[in-house]
Design brief:
Order of helices and strands: HHHHHHHHHHHHH
Strand content: under 5%
Low-confidence stretches: 333-342
Number of helices: 13
Largest sheet: none
Length: 342
């Protein structure tokens, strides 16, 4: 009995137990996972935007938060009211164009290779999940809108009252649940430092990739630019695999509008864009801990997609990086001890 008590008093054991309890709690509220993830993502990204603005504009913190949220909500409102019919039409046309490709026999050897590649079980699973997610989102747009609205409101209140929230939360340090608080604080800092930073990096990279891709598609004469831009952005949030999946419809459409040469130009342009991502954006936005081998990336995506569906494709890598950070798995070599350090 004494051995068990001493074991439970060890910091590592307590940390593992509390981490397991946190997972159980999150699993018990999995029906609210969309709201939880959206709130965290909005809060983290908007907090970074507020900090960026505050460094350049001398203004009250609350005023900056309110102005930024007003600006973003205004942009979203104008975009939805003005461009939602256009977006819906272009996505419908895009889906119809791709469906026509699969419903008609393809005699061209290049298209036959693409079709056989898409028929692979894992690629097919990604596409099926993505299509079902889009269809479910459009068919249940009210529920999605409520989640987004609630997440925006919660993140707004979090940022407005952030100093007061920090002060109030620190009171738990000396409470009866102090051991739980210290471990939750440890995991919370790790989570925001890894998961949040990776999500932020994926978001910025997806925006840059979308902007550059839209320019290329317009030059090549692609139709449904808005619909393709939305598709590229959301698939850009999926590390590595998003590039492969987005190339499938882009290649199909490129061949139908311009033949082999358009496909070749597209592939060259995509290679240049993702070289910019790999050699310029990734080193600036990602830490060394996020530099995963491609094999690990695909394995994590396969497992996270099976467990979490479409969300798994977006949060699988950040969660894996978070776990690596907890386990202190880094690429940094230990600094050798010298006489001057003794």
């Amino acid at each position: 009995m004494d051995t068990i008590i001493r074991l439970l008093q060890r910091k590592e054991v307590k940390r593992v137990i509390i981490f397991a309890l946190m997972i159980v709690v999150l699993f018990s509220v999995k029906s609210m996972m969309n709201l939880i993830l959206l709130t965290f993502i909005f809060s983290f990204l908007m907090n970074r935007l507020v900090e960026f603005t505050a460094k350049r504009v001398r203004m009250n913190h609350k005023l900056i938060v309110i102005m930024l949220y007003t600006l973003i909500v205004g942009i979203l409102t104008v975009a939805l009211t003005k461009y939602l019919p256009l977006i819906s039409y272009e996505i419908t046309q895009l889906v119809r164009q791709i469906t026509n490709f699969f419903t008609h026999p393809q005699e061209n050897p290049l298209l036959g290779v693409i079709e056989s590649f898409i028929s692979g079980e894992q690629i097919k699973a990604y596409i099926d999940n993505g299509v079902s997610f889009l269809l479910k989102s459009f068919s249940d747009i009210s529920k999605v809108s409520i989640h987004v609205l609630l997440a925006l409101i919660l993140s707004l209140f979090f940022l407005i009252e952030k100093p007061r929230l920090v002060e109030f939360t620190n009171k738990f340090k000396n409470s009866k649940i102090a051991p739980f608080y210290h471990e939750i604080e440890f995991f919370g800092k790790k989570f925001s430092r890894t998961f949040g930073k990776v999500i932020e990096a994926q978001f910025i990279i997806a925006l840059v990739n979308t902007f550059l891709s839209i320019i290329i598609l317009m030059i090549l004469g692609y139709p449904q630019i808005v619909g393709l831009g939305i598709m590229i952005f959301f698939l850009g949030l999926i590390p590595v695999a998003g590039v492969v999946i987005s190339l499938i419809p882009l290649t199909i459409i490129g061949f139908t509008i311009g033949g082999y040469m358009t496909v070749i130009y597209l592939l060259i342009a995509i290679m240049i864009i993702h070289a910019i991502e790999a050699y310029i954006l990734n080193p600036k936005l990602m830490s060394s801990k996020t530099d995963l081998p491609i094999f690990y990336t695909f394995v994590v995506l396969i497992f996270s997609q099976n467990f979490f569906g479409v969300w798994g494709l977006i949060i699988g890598i950040p969660i894996f990086i978070f776990l690596l950070d907890i386990l202190d798995v880094t690429d940094k070599e230990p600094v050798p001890t010298t006489k001057d350090d003794i």
